Amino acid sequence: MWVIAINPTSGHGKGALVGENVTQYFDQKGLPYQVFSALSSEQLKRDLEKFLDTQNCTGVICVGGDGLAHLILQLVVPRSIPFAVIPAGTGNDIVRSLGWSLYDSKDYLDNVTSTAPQPIDLGNVDSEWFAAILSTGFDSVVNEKANSLSWPRGAQRYNLAIAMELPRFSPIKYEITTDTRTFTTEAMLIAIGNGRSYGGGMLVCPHAKVDDGLFDVMILKPVSKIEFIKVFPKVFSGSHITHPAVEIFRTKKISLSANAIAYADGERVGPAPVSAECIAGAGLTWRL
């Protein structure tokens, strides 16, 4: 039995439309499935936990954005159940990070329903799984502000939060421990990448791979506000990594201590200190 988990409100209603297309695909193929959809993540989690603990599940298809996919990871990874994501959110960075197409849902579903899943790396931060990016610093401050705003919707809310927070933001002092060293640094932001992107296609860790057993860590050291405004747009192409204030390294484990908040896959993890590890082969999914 396949599970199709749908967030009907993701992507301003796109989740409901894409979810209908996915169920039609399964109907046409004559494949057994059960749909789970709820307006609250708590209810969806409870319903899915009950089903997964009592029924045999071939795989879980997430139809929504990064928030739904992040929730599904917490359920399927401990149970060794394969998962796939059909993008219907505003960011869809888990899909990007894992190399899946944002557009060819039918081709991807053909792959999912006819081939065996493959292992991929996942990050684990304080017992919470993530597929794409664990971040802290300015982007987390912006997330905190954006989440407190009721207007505008979508990407414009994030842009407004940037405009509100950048003038008063100061670099944060971090104590960092990796596989090979412990050091202290000030940083504008730190991104710990199992995958490559966050924020709707920002290639913050452009060379990260989900099958090398390591995180790519990007640290942006202190720069002026004007310089930050110049550097920030380069993250969409990944060319920011050539800036002299950017440091990149790889590690399997990392711990951060600071007066800062951390987010993983766009979901709030909480205040530092946090510790994360890249777990090779922790997830099961289908690759195109």
Set down the secondary structure blueprint:
Blueprint: E1 2-6, H1 10-29, E2 33-37, H2 41-52, E3 59-64, H3 66-79, E4 83-87, H4 93-97, H5 105-114, E5 118-125, E6 128-130, E7 133-137, H6 138-148, H7 155-165, E8 172-177, E9 182-187, E10 189-193, E11 215-220, H8 225-231, E12 246-251, E13 253-257, E14 261-264, E15 267-271, E16 274-285
Parallel strand pairs: 1-2, 1-3, 3-4
Antiparallel strand pairs: 5-6, 5-16, 7-10, 7-14, 8-9, 8-13, 10-11, 11-12, 13-16, 14-15
Helix pairs in contact: 2-3, 6-7
- List the uncertain runs: none
Give the topology string: H per helix, E per strand. Answer: EHEHEHEHHEEEHHEEEEHEEEEE
Strand content: 25-35%
Which outline best applies? Answer: globular
Brief characterization of the structure:
With 288 residues, the chain is an alpha+beta fold. The protein contains 8 helices and 16 strands. Strands 6-5-16-13-8-9 form a 6-stranded antiparallel beta sheet, covered by helices on one side. Strands 12-11-10-7-14-15 form a 6-stranded antiparallel beta sheet. A 4-stranded parallel beta sheet has the order 2-1-3-4, with helices on both faces.
Describe this structure in words.
This protein folds into 2 domains: 2-115, Rossmann fold, CATH 3.40.50; 130-285, Tumour Suppressor Smad4, CATH 2.60.200.40. The longest helix has 20 residues, at 10-29. Helix 2 (41-52) packs parallel to helix 3 and helix 6 packs across helix 7. The protein contains 8 helices and 16 strands. With 288 residues, the chain is of the alpha+beta class. The chain is globular and about 60 Å long. The model has no long low-confidence stretch (mean pLDDT 93). It has helices spanning 10-29, 41-52, 66-79, 93-97, 105-114, 138-148, 155-165, 225-231; strands spanning 2-6, 33-37, 59-64, 83-87, 118-125, 128-130, 133-137, 172-177, 182-187, 189-193, 215-220, 246-251, 253-257, 261-264, 267-271, 274-285.
